[in-house]
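Sanity check

After download, print the first record. It should look like this:
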Amino acid sequence: MTARASPTALLAALGLFIYLFGGYNMRNQQRALAGNRLQRRRVRRTQESSHYHAALGSRKSAMWTELRGGVGAALEEERGVEVGTLAGKLWRPEEGENSSEESEMLGIDGVGTSVHFVGPYCVAAGPQSEVYVSDTLENRIRKISLNGEVIVLAGSGEDGDADGSGLNARFRSPHGLCVSRDGTTIYVADSGNNKIRRISSDGEVTTVKVGNYSDVGSRGGERAQGAGLERYVQKEWEEDRRDIVEPEGLFFPMDVALDETTSRLLVADTHSGKISQVDLRTGNLTLVAGSFKGKSMHLDGLGSQAAFQYPISISLSKRDRILYVADPPEPALRVASREMEISKIEDIPEEMREIYDALQKVDADGVEVDWKEARNHFYPSIRAIYPNGKVVTLSGGKGSDNVDGYGSEALFICPTGVCVDQATGHVYVTDRSSRTIRKVSQDGETTTFCGSLEAGSQLSCDGSGSSARFLSPFGIAWDPTGYRSRLLYVPDLGERAVRVIMMD
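Expected structure tokens:
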């Protein structure tokens, strides 16, 4: 005998069927709607990307057209390298004074030649070819957008130390910058405040938490070679260096480089003679290489056993994790000899005696130093720090000159900026005093890439290769969008302009 289901059981079964089938359909509908939204989002992003790359291509194409049309025939070996002016105006004697006395002290926003910087030292480029400029002498950070418009991103223009939005923030002598991969965050070495500042893409400024070296037991190690001449030389910006003690934290940092794979910020702690790193998650400050005790000296080695003269600019290679350092002579060694104060001659390290002896060619009446002789003992160079902390000299030897060659055969005068071409691995250097941009290839060969220091060449001009002129190039930055038509940006401090180098 077959059991018959009750009406209640049938209704329950029907309800369960409707619930399951309806839920299944609902989930399918939700998936379909989500898929449609995702597809529309992908299409929109593709369109935005196409519009962006079209704008970028138009900008590069227009710049190429303008540059090629204005410089005439290039030398055969220099074709494909053009130097132009991105923002600011190059001064010409036939046009009279470059600016009024009032505008000398004030920056002016605008587009192209209408822009006036006060003292542009350093630059960094973002993922959409936006360029950020440290207008150091005006204590401001400026932004050059893709369409060439220059605006103040942050900084009131007054010397100070204050977080805030846009013009409400204050800096004190900001120098090196770097930009996050997504372009949302800019880090700035606020040198005069001994701080690192963080700026959002909309101009909100905050201070990065940075601890002391002693907090994690990573102070620079003692060095058997001695304290270095720097301890006895009176700096041009300080009254007396003899009694200064090693700082616990950052001491006039001048550049930063972001390592997003490890959430750390690498810092050129310039006046401490160290390369350091800040853990952005904890604020811990640790030593990478160099030593306060060994400052003003040139010594390769591991970690704190290495010594830098004046580590002023850094750039991290994403390919092999090598950090490159521009290491010019200590400015104190380049000031007039009457600024020197030596307490005990026997305390001067043996390796520094050559410099001391050369600088002593000044009598009590103040006869000028024989700088040609003294400069032969300087060691301007490009250093490389490997992931294990080993420091080696990549390029540059003893002496101060503009000489191309391999390794120590090459000579620099005063390298103040360094950047890595992430597409090729080549390193580009601004040799400020020789008014040139140098290139260090992966095989260690150093060549003069563009610019020239010829007798009578006192003005900047756009052009091809060595026909281009810089007045006082300081920093340098590689455009991360430039894998096809590579771009380099150079602030020409002497011209108060930002120059652009285009490589085909």
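If your output differs, re-run the checksum step. Summary of this record's structure: The chain has four helices and 29 strands.
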